[in-house]
Amino acid sequence: IGHGFSDATLASAATSKPDKEIITRVMGPALGYLTTPITLIQCALILLKQRQDLPKGGVFPPGIIFGPTDLQDRLQENGVSFDLISKTQLYT
User: Which one of 23, 28, 49, 68 has the largest count of C-beta atoms within 10 Å of its C-beta?
Assistant: First the structure.
């Protein structure tokens, strides 16, 4: 379950609260012992092969680094699936 903002303007306002909720199911082979190394290896391969496309300098959260890459496709090719369960507009 994740909470966030429907647009960047809301996210940048210090007083606003998240207005979206998304529920996603992640499934894969033995999540602790197999899916974790699959994910780490795919992230490492992206860092090696797509370095020129990644943000330069600083410290970034994973969503900023891997969001515009093909990480989700790579994971799905290796048996990790992502299913959108629901997306809800929150009223605050």
Answer: 28
What is the residue whose two structure tokens read 């890459």? 69
Do residues 74 and 67 make contact, with C-beta atoms less than 8 angstroms apart? no
β strands within 16-75, DSSP E: 20-27
pLDDT: is 57 or 39 the higher one?
A: 39
Q: What is the pLDDT of residue 45?
A: 96
**Is residue 63 pLDDT above 90, yes or no?**
no
Asked if 75 and 37 touch (Cβ cutoff 8 Å), the reply is: no
Q: How far, in Å, CA of 10 to CA of 42, rounded?
A: 32
| Total residue length of the chain | 92
Beta bridge partners of 89: 20
DSSP 5: -
The answer to whether 21 and 3 are in contact (CB under 8 A) is yes
